[in-house]
Amino acid sequence: MMMENNLMVCRKFMVSLGYWNAGLIFPQEGSRMPRNPLLESALMPQRGLFRFILLAGLAVAAGFLALAIAVPVEPRVPVPLIALFSPGLKLAEFVTPDSGKSFAWTFGWFLRIAIAANAVFYFAIFSLFAYLAGRRRDSG
């Protein structure tokens, strides 16, 4: 008896909010599901923030990987091809400070500049792909 009462209260609560709409169960019927305000919270990352953090993390990883691949093959591969896949490498060669500091200090700045430039490059590419995928999903 107690189970039935809890189920009815829950069902009445859902119906009163307007989220118990059987026509919206299958997305191929054309209409979008309404957003549930119970799932939105200031503590839970929202879609835009999550997408930004995810794309930034992927961009840093891809930038690091591109630099790791580009450095050993640089002498054998044409410069435009290196600049296409790892623009941070060429940028770091031009921008790295040329001072009387130690080799470790210079190399550290070289890596920082190259990884940051590659991360910005890949973040722009991933953001463009995410934008186009979202636009295609919304229109289709």
Supply the key terms.
mainly alpha; single chain; 5 helices; 140 residues
How is the topology of this model organized?
Elements: H1 2-17, H2 47-73, H3 79-85, H4 87-95, H5 103-139
Helix pairs in contact: 2-5, 3-4, 4-5
Number of strands: 0
Helix and strand sequence: HHHHH
How much is the average pLDDT?
76
- Going by helix content, strand content and strand pairing, the class is mainly alpha
Strand content: under 5%
Structural summary, described in words:
The protein is mainly α and 140 residues long. The protein has a domain at 46-140. It is 69% helix and 0% strand. The protein has helices at 2-17, 47-73, 79-85, 87-95, 103-139. Helix 4 (87-95) packs antiparallel against helix 5. It is elongated and about 60 Å long. Mean pLDDT is 76; it is low at 4-24.
